[in-house]
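Hey, can you fold this one?
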Amino acid sequence: MKFKLFCCLLFVVSLSVTEARDSYVKSHNANVDVTFRVDMSNLDTHEEGVYLAGGSFGQQGYLMTDDGNDVWSVTLPLAVNRRYLYKFRNQPSYDTWDGFENVSGLISGDCVTGAYNDRYVDVATSDIVLPVVPYERCNYDQITTSDVTFRVDMSAVDTHEEGVYLAGGTFGQEGYLMIDDGNDVWSVTLPLPVNQRHLYKFRNQPSYGTWNGFEDTSGLISGGCNIGDYNDRYVDVATSDIDLPVVSYESCVLDQVRIVEFTELKMEIYPNPATDQLHLIMNDNFSRLNIEVVNPLGISLIHKEMKDVSLGSVIEFDVHYLPKGMYVLKISTHGEMVTTVPWMKQ
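Sure. Predicted structure:
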């Protein structure tokens, strides 16, 4: 019995010594991994990427990786028991100190330190995965509105001489006059409160103090993009800006009348609507091509980056797991948008 008790005590002492040794090694010699993450979805991300730089990480800094949905991260081994200063930068350094995030949001959110108003992290003896933060903000609580762009194609109807309006639902009787961006596609961008659903319709005239002139809802009902007693369109606004796809007046999608613009680029998609697979036929050559499938909230769900895409190539997208509804295929090359095309998932 005494021997067993002695062995147990010896084991506990040995374990304590081991833990103390490991703690000592970590606090004096070892590094720990620290993961930095930033959400870039509220701005146009630089084509050469996002960097962690400044402060403790110098002028050049470290290129981060897009983990998806424009959230960028980098994990670095850092010495323990030290404070590290940094900022995020939406471009390479180009051997300058330009391009860093604006500090006004960091100052108002009180997550800065030092003469240059840097972000900071205190590194102890354990690995750290820092929370995702918005670019130029300390946290998502600082974001109270997001910019939402609404767009409607009026080319299938006679546009009213006094213009097209976004109105009804959240936007009231008068609503907001939209701007003709060209080819009878009208748009308006508004700052809307986050974490809310906003209802609306398009109206092909001013209100004239009435509720008349709104688009007919039969196409919205058949397309499944309506909600509520008045069959309004809707958008759920989170903490990222949203650029809604162009839709035809009185329709949930961009109708066939504008698909001509897409076919002029010598590309085709099939089937549309799609159930399991969506195919893009390339009838032109591209040295570099970026293709995204984007949902109505502007969130990229599928992304393909390809090189040396040749005439006749067929690019396939597995879309079986996507919810039913409207999506947009965005195609760009060398940082410039080639075209967008809407499609339906059945």
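Residues 8-13, 256-264 have pLDDT under 50 and may be disordered. Let me know if you want another pass with a different chain boundary.
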